[in-house]
Amino acid sequence: MSKRWGKVALSCLAVLVVLGTLLVGCGKEEGEGKIVITIGHISDMTGPASTALVPINYAARDLANYYNDNNLIPGVELRVVDYDARYDPSRDIPGWEWIKSKGAILGLTALPTTAETLKAPAEKDKMPIWALSYSEVLDYPPGWVFLINVPNRALINPLLKWVSQNDWDYNTKGIPKVGSAGWEEPYAIGCKNAVRDYVLAHPDKFQYVGGYLVPAGGMAWGGEVLALKNCDYLWPPSTGTGITTFMNEFRDKGGKAKFIGTDSHAAYRGLIVDSVGWDRVDGMLATSPTRWWTETSSIVDLAKQLLQKNHAADYDEIIHAGIGYVGGFHQLYAFFQVIKKAIEDVGAANFNGQAFYNTAISFETQWPGYEKWGFTATKRYAWSGVGLYKWSKADQNIVRLVDPWLSIDVT
Question: 387, 346, 358: which is closest to 370 by C-alpha?
Answer without folding.
Answer: 387
